Amino acid sequence: MTVPSPAGGGADLDGLILAIARDADRQAFAALFRHFAPRLKSYLARTGLPANAAEELAQETMLAVWRKASYFDPARAGAATWIFTIARNLRIDLLRRERHRSTLDADAESEPVDETSGETLLMTAEREARVRAALSALSEEQAAIVRLSFFQEKPHSAIAQELGIPLGTAKSRVRLALARLRVLLEDLK
Amino acid sequence: MNPRAHPSDETLARFAVGTLPAGPRLVVAAHLEGCACCRRTVRAFEAVGGALVEAEAGLPLAPDAFARTMDRIAREGAGMVHRPAPARPAPGGRPTGLPPGLVLPAALAGCAIGPLRPVAPGVRIGRVRVPGDPKANVMLLDIGAGRGIPDHTHAGLEFTQVLHGAYHDHRGRYAAGDLVEVDGEVDHAPVVDADGPCVCLVAMEGALRFRGLLGVLLRPFV
Fold it and tell me: Where is the chain membrane-spanning (chain B) (predicted)?
């Protein structure tokens, strides 16, 4: 799988978020919106959200990016990863509200994983470059399986349907593809 | 002490992309608090998520999407968040009768934990209510020294984070910090070490199936 690096490179996208945090820079936000909003919408649609909900949540995510820009720490995660985790959390909150409309959502702003302080981290740029390398190093078939299953609520049935294979086979293929990816990512640890 | 039993890769990936249901997510979050190794794996899978989003072809948004977002920014003021997020509330009441040395995981903050009720000799269970998902099957299990949980199988995955003490079954021994992930095919009968009680946080994706009387007793809990 070829994972193209963003036009201008990840560091520039990081810079856009930093400019928003520093100067409430609307031009930087416009550029970031152009780059990420369509990608977020197609990612959210891939998770099974209907098109209008994916559209809403993509906008919601970009709004949160504006608001939370001061939390962005390029030493922890690159722009794409940080924005992905915001969209992920908003999606969890949305599904939670749909399941339980009457409950007031007290911790919508909190992250599922607490910030871990004092942990030695690889330089983010290097880590993310290696993640891209790991994805490219997968075989054509395994890359397709990761791409098709990674964001799915029911990865096994999605794969079974997409590739026309039995559920049991889909299960073991997802497991194998993930194990291979894990081995390729092992250097990151 | 480093945990020896960990969630599967698939579970950590589902945690990282947010597709793990609320109950198991809570138990995995409790494990991550004490496992730097799994935290790094989650971080790596999040970066995979970021790279896959970056690689998306993209779907066009409504023509007015950007204008609408800017309107909201203008309407709600700059609205930028500069202060640190407020600390989570303290765990919602600690059930009485837990071992004094036990520290409840921070992941339980905001969850209401019901009183521990005896369901079998030496076995007490408290229902954990997960905010936003009242149907999540999560419970705190307090099992006396040398006691066992009767033979059972699962309809889906079962996630057990050992919070205190240790237990063993036919596959091995598990101590505080370990997360044991068991799927539906496993039929097991865990027994707690003889030298002290064992407290576990347990979540199930599917219903738990006990053989015999305990199944009836546990019905209100699972």
Answer: none
What is the residue range of B206's domain? 1-88+106-222
- pLDDT in the model for residue B66: 96
Please tell me the distance in Å from A65's CA to the nearest CA on chain B. Answer: 9
Q: Kindly give the interhelix angle for B65-75 and A51-68, rounded to the nearest 10 degrees.
A: 40
What count of other Cβ atoms lies within 10 Å of the Cβ of residue A84?
Answer: 30
In Å, what is the CA distance from A67 to each residue of A56, B72, B88, B94?
A: 17, 11, 20, 35
- Cβ atoms of A21 and A28 within 8 Å: the answer is no
Q: What is the CATH number of the domain that holds B64?
A: 2.60.120.10
CA distance B154 to chain A (A): 18
| Predicted TM-score (pTM) of this structure | 0.84
Residue with the larger pLDDT of the pair B16 and B171: B16
> Is residue B158 classed as helix, strand or coil in its secondary structure?
strand
The interface residues of chain B toward chain A in range 137-196, judged by CB-CB distance below 8 A, are: none
What radius of gyration, in Å, describes the C-alpha atoms of chain A? 18
**Residue B204 near residue B23, CB atoms below 8 Å:** yes
DSSP state of B155: S
CB of B216 closer than 8 Å to CB of B157: no
Tell me, yes or no, whether B101 lies in a domain.
no
CA pair distance B30, B178, nearest whole angstrom: 10
Q: What confidence tens digit (pLDDT) does each residue in A120-139 have? A: 445 677 778 888 899 999 99
Q: What is the CA radius of gyration of chain B?
A: 21
**pLDDT top residue among B197 and B149:** B197
Q: How far apart are alpha carbons B207 and A39 in whole angstroms? A: 37
Give chain B's domain count.
Answer: 1
**Model confidence band, residue A119 (pLDDT cutoffs 50, 70, 90):** very low
Higher pLDDT, A15 or A187: A15
Q: Please tell me the distance in Å from A1's CA to the nearest CA on chain B.
A: 10
Could you tell me which chain A residue has the CA closest to the CA of B65? Answer: A59
Mutate to test the interface with B, among A104, A107, A146, A187 (most CBs of B within 10 A): A107
Q: What pLDDT score was predicted for residue A139?
A: 92
Q: Is B72 inside a domain boundary?
A: yes
Query: Is B100 inside any structural domain?
Result: no
User: Residue B210 and residue B219: Cα distance in Å, rounded?
Assistant: 10
Task: Please report whether residue B95 resides in a domain.
Answer: no
